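Suppose a classmate hands you a notebook page containing two proteins, each written out with its sequence and a corresponding row of structure tokens. How would you begin to make sense of it? This section walks through that situation. The first entry is reproduced here exactly as it would appear on such a page.
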Amino acid sequence: MRALHGTTTAAILGLAFTSLVPAMAQTPPPDVIDPAPTAADWAALGKLPDWSGTWFPDITDQDKQITTNPVPWKPEVQPQVAFWDKEEKEGRPRGLLLNCLPHGMPSLILITHNANEFLFTPGRVTLLGESDGNRLRRIYTDGRKLPDDPDPNFHGTSVGHWEGDTLVVETRGILPQVFLAISEAVGVPLGEGAVVHERIHLIAPDTLAHDLVIEAPAILTRPWETRRIYYRNRKRSYDIVEGVCRQGDFEEGTDKWGNKIYVPTHQQDGNILPPPAK
């Protein structure tokens, strides 16, 4: 009886496992699969506009845009902007970007003083930025739809498509703590429900226009339309260099085994200090 019981138990377990195999092996829904690109997908990249090289923002134009095309702040938000503007002018700038957090969208485009680089791969445009390790943005061009409830993050979820030589992008799911900044010292958190629409295109062989329409119902009276200009430089001396946020808060040292390591220093503003005088 014991042998029969064991055989019966094994048979039942085997049957149960067999019945689970088809369920476990079912193909996920198509929108969960990211198929490997084909040779045709890679060849299609050659038909896209040439955005190679390193792109530098026109900082003078950034300032001009804020002056000639001011942000339509809500009346209750304007005093916050005026306060931080006054603080900056009186020598007490807040420093929006000293906390080591990413700029986030749309400030990554609006006020950045650092170079950007575009990488084209099948189904995606990747934006890389200089200065710290958090300037990485993915724009999906594989035909996917924006999720109904995207996971919030600093740069949001960006989905785009090509209209001729123009990349058209919609971004949602931006964290409400991300600033809508008009300088590196003046800005207000976006709040809930922000949406950024972009049209990115060349207006000259080495000039890129980045047109934005920013919806931020928590702080703006209406969508704000603005443009930022970037200039290309192909010289190798202008390649993006590594930037490590808060590297200046550490100094070179050694551990008890003699390995070279970084140890905390008293320095607290992120700048890399010169070596001490001997």
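The notebook's second entry, a different protein, reads as follows.
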Amino acid sequence: MLELKNIGVNFSGRDILKEVSITFHPEEIIGLVAPNGTGKSTLMNVIMNYLRPNSGKVLFNNELEYTSKKNEVKIHQLVSMMPDQSDLYNHLSGKQHLKIYSSMWNSNPELIERTIEDLGMASYVNKKTGTYSLGMRQRLCFAMQIVSDTQIMLMDEVMNGLDPTQVEIISQILVKKKAEGKTIIIASHLLENLEKYANRIFFVKNGKLDLIEDIYKDLGINGNLVIRVKEGTPELKEKLSQDFPELNIQLLANSVTLIDFPKDDDGKLERISAFLSDHHEQEFSVGKMTLVDLYSKYYH
């Protein structure tokens, strides 16, 4: 278990993290979502003790804190962060990297071959990483994290540079690791994919972690249901607002028009549908607001 207690980080008078208190449990995948520079990476660096917070503490398994070098060694057998591609040695093979990570965390060596197979790396894993493509290097970084086999795993933009097939493979491995009792914290911009496997997703804003379910409530969205017009325009929004002034209508930064689902329907849905058809807006749907839409609505 990982617990953050009143974590505060301040740079040049600006609160990057502000009294963050939260507990992350075994068998849980946590998604952290935010624009760059809002605290995601800072939070992970605090957990790893790469950055000392101005206030608060990080607690592992109800007992271990970063209060001594001895404790730090013990903690870093429990937690690991996925390496960055810049951490790879171009003159070493992928397999040599995996052996180094397995040795550093004293994990089961059999996990190396299993991970190579799971990620489809056999054809290139014995080649020097200097010959790898962006996607191959990213898969290797993820594989290094997996073979460390720590109780808590931190991953920053794990899906960068991967094709849809590889994204799905890594997603399945993450779900498998969760079932093994791991605590996995992922900072990601691939929101549609994150929503498939994360137990909890937080948006980071103004130094705080906001759970998306709470954001839906705060925004007053009726059961998260919206009418979603794929290609919206300011003119369409203006016309909708004139005909349906009682509804919350918003044009998002991603050019989607969102219309909050009528709380008292009484035929409004049919009238809205007819209105959109009359204005040649054929691509619209009724359903749950997507995480991408919520992100755009919340931050922009």
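A careful reader of the second entry would note: The CA atoms of residues 263 and 297 lie 20 Å apart.
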